[in-house]
TrEMBL record:
InterPro entries: Aminotrans_V_dom, Cysteine_dSase, PyrdxlP-dep_Trfase, PyrdxlP-dep_Trfase_major, PyrdxlP-dep_Trfase_small
Organism: Holzapfeliella saturejae
Domain of life, per lineage: Bacteria
Keywords annotated in UniProt: Iron, Iron-sulfur, Metal-binding, Pyridoxal phosphate, Transferase
Protein name: Cysteine desulfurase family protein
Aminotransferase class V domain residues: 5-369
Presence of the UniProt keyword Cytoplasm in the record: no
Requisite cofactors: pyridoxal 5'-phosphate
Family in the record: Belongs to the class-V pyridoxal-phosphate-dependent aminotransferase family. NifS/IscS subfamily.
Reaction(s) catalysed by this chain's protein: (sulfur carrier)-H + L-cysteine = (sulfur carrier)-SH + L-alanine
Amino acid sequence: MSSLYFDNAATTAMRPEVIEEMTDKMTTIYGNASSTHEFGRQAKKVLDDSREILAKSINATDKEIIITSGGTESNNMALRQVAKIKQNEGKHIISTMIEHPSVLRTLEYLEDAGFEVTYLPVNIQGNISVDDVKSALRPDTILVSLMSVNNETGARLPIHEIGKLLKEHQAVFHTDAVQSYGLDSIDVKRDHIDLLSTSAHKINGPKFIGFLYLNRDIFIKPLILGGEQESKRRAGTENVPAIAGFAKAVSLLDDQSKQDKQLFFKQLTTQLLDYLKANKIEFEVNGQLEDQHSYHVLNLWIKGVETDRLQMNLDLNHIAVSGGSACSAGSLEPSHVLTAMYGPDSPRVQESIRISFGEFNTEEQVEVLGSQLIKIISRLLTKNK
């Protein structure tokens, strides 16, 4: 049996068009974009054209786009540098208990530096309340950081409503959009977003490249020091082929294709769930499958089957799924997202898997996944008796 990949929330395979674009740029455009000679100017043009594509994808200007190495660096830059420039106005930050580790670890760093962080709870759907954000706001709140879509459950947070709430407040609004960029319509002006983090490898682009949107009215010092690249906001020679590949991946997407993807992933989700029900597998969806959900992520509680055993057996049958965030791989710690939703004593925390769909998954693949799940779950439950 050929290998099947259902871990697209962790990373995605590059599209052939992206590989072709990067290969071309690696072959023909090898100058340093900071050089003033012909080769440098050629690289600079590719960089500028790519930046314009990235900016337009979120209704920003090219001067508001800072090229980074990806979501982790973007999140670190946003949180650490905004906290630094705003600390004279207050030291209170609001976030949630379900953020990506690159946000949570950065917030811990800021707490050690004297900042106070309010971590908003989530309901059993894995979502937050706008009223909770409103109640947590204080005169000394300087930063609110909330992910757009959760990477473990697919819960879509009410970013637009919170952006409107913060419009008249001094707090800067940051969203980690790594899981929503490329799948949802994003408009930083419409949603009153001040900073936004992305990563190319989640949208069938190359790894180790992304961008941070920074509202033109906010001035931060660079996190990485050195040269004067990225308008003096992020030092380091730009990776022109990777940036061109990122832009190519973005150019292949539009609002209609994003809607089409969500509908197709919903179809795959329904297909798999119907198959499990027909075969009398005891399971529940972690979170909800409603409007406030991105259908590329499906988190399932398989009752009575431990996560690591199910994941290992699927892997032995050449099927890749996840037990949670890829950034927690190798850790014996339970999912902090499911713990926040259901409590540390819930069996869901130890008996859930994440299936995440992507560009190259098919109905035929989902049929194989369902068939293998039935066999493996039935065998493991028999052994447990």
